[in-house]
Amino acid sequence: MTKKENSTYYSQVASYYDEDAGLGFEDRAEVNTSLDRIRRDFRKITVQFPFKKALEIGCGPGFDVHWFASQYPDKEFVAVDISEEMVKLTRKRLNRDQLKNASVIQSDERQLAEQFGEESFDLVYVYFGALNTVEDLTFSASQIHRILKPGGAAVLTFVNKWYLRELVVQVIKLNFKIAFARLGKVWGGYSVSRFLPSHCYSPGTILKAFSQFKLLQRKGYSIVYPPWYNDHQVRKNPEKANKKWELDQKLQKTFLWSKGEYTLFVFQK
Question: With a threshold of 0.90, does the pTM exceed it?
């Protein structure tokens, strides 16, 4: 890919999320119980690892950097997002509560080492698949490796390529285009009306890209538990949803751990 093509790709991603910020993304996410449950589990895993300075890549409207800065006032947090409008929402959220230990800038994973310097963070986290919108995952992995201190951890989540439940459901409904959309080289995102240039990754692809790291932990989400876009199923029958969540935990010890809607990996430098 040429430099011009690369720039166009990232401009498309930024424009998508700029528009999303104005379409109620923040309000929708705040009331989504499935997103909240998965988010809380991401955080629970993240805080297992000691850190003094953390970087969030793809912060969106700032839910997580705000939470971390509130919970850990003695630690420093930096957030980046490719979308100018998402950065504005994050900055507004941080300023509202006067969280001086957190900052946000508009950027993406390509300039991390140049902007922050080598070995500048001891924790990097990415929630809900921001790395699915990078053009070269191996290059992104090298940037994360450069900015992490020795022994530092990267808690990374991805939209999964092999989401078995959705594939089966959509095939039964004869929605073949949706059923196999994640398996292509380029994925258009969740919206049926707008296109987000992105890629779905298999666990094998992720492990290959991050081969310079040590794998500490991996986990799958929404294997049988409803995905975030089917949150109505959780609200309609929370008891049944709880049982599905518990079943997901048991399935982590089987090959099905990697067949959910999201995957999480913890890597150590």
Answer: yes
The predicted structure's pLDDT at residue 260:
97
CATH of the domain at 93: 3.40.50.150
- Residue 175 inside a domain? The answer is no
Query: pLDDT per residue over 155-175, tens digit each?
Result: 999 999 999 999 999 999 999
- Whether residue 185 is contained in a domain is answered as no
| pLDDT in the model for residue 6 | 59
Ramachandran quadrant class, 243 (left: phi over 0; alpha: psi -120 to 50; beta: rest): alpha
Write out the E strands in the chain.
53-57, 76-81, 102-106, 121-126, 148-159, 214-221, 262-268
- pLDDT for 99-128, tens place per residue? 999 999 999 888 899 999 999 999 999 999
- Rounded Cα distance between 125 and 62, Å, is 13
User: What is the domain extent for residue 232?
Assistant: 3-162+197-268
DSSP string, 120-174: -EEEEEE-SSGGGG-S-HHHHHHHHHHHEEEEEEEEEEEEBS--HHHHHHHHHTT
